[in-house]
């Protein structure tokens, strides 16, 4: 199955409560349009999303390219668990800002683990990333005030074949616990 959010000029709250979504040919969760998506992991829930190893995209179209893919600002919170198995490309990819406030997030990705284009901010949570390339990263390279990773809390465990934490402008760590393999 696939959940598509297409809500122009709207804030959307999506609560995952023991949800399991597998999409064999695209992103199981695809945010096409929204002002901001608040992804909440219900207390005590275990949620799993996974994709296949090929996506069926229109010619010339390259997105979505992640198991959880968003073109809108996104905040992830809650006291549940999100398991992401990315067989195609990235685990969690956001084309705007990505903030992780809380929750247990486990990402196993063939490419990058967690990516926030404009910026990626980790305030809390227990995050485990196993990535075929970079663990967590920010890629905005056209605005020097963006493209950063900010970690102020949480427990982060990264196993990456390339860079564990990568940013175009800077990486700031002011709190939390980070373990890198």
Describe this structure in words.
The radius of gyration is 15 Å and the shape is globular. With 181 residues, it is mainly β. The relative contact order is 0.13. Helices cover 0% and strands 55% of the residues. The chain has no helices and 21 strands. It has a seven-stranded parallel beta sheet with strand order 1-4-7-10-13-16-19, with no helix packed on it.
Helix content: under 10%
Computed Rg: 15 Å
Number of H- or I-type helical stretches: 0
Lateral arrangement of strands in the main beta sheet: 1-4-7-10-13-16-19
Quote the average pLDDT.
97
The biggest sheet amounts to: 7 strands, parallel
Helix- and strand-based class?
mainly beta
Could you name the ranges where pLDDT drops below 50 across 5 or more consecutive residues? none
**What is the terminal-to-terminal distance?**
34 Å
Total number of beta strands: 21
Write the element-wise H/E pattern from the N-terminal end onward: EEEEEEEEEEEEEEEEEEEEE
What sort of overall outline do the alpha carbons produce when their principal axes are compared? globular
Which short descriptors sum up this protein?
about 180 residues; mainly beta; seven-stranded parallel sheet; 21 strands; about 55% strand; globular
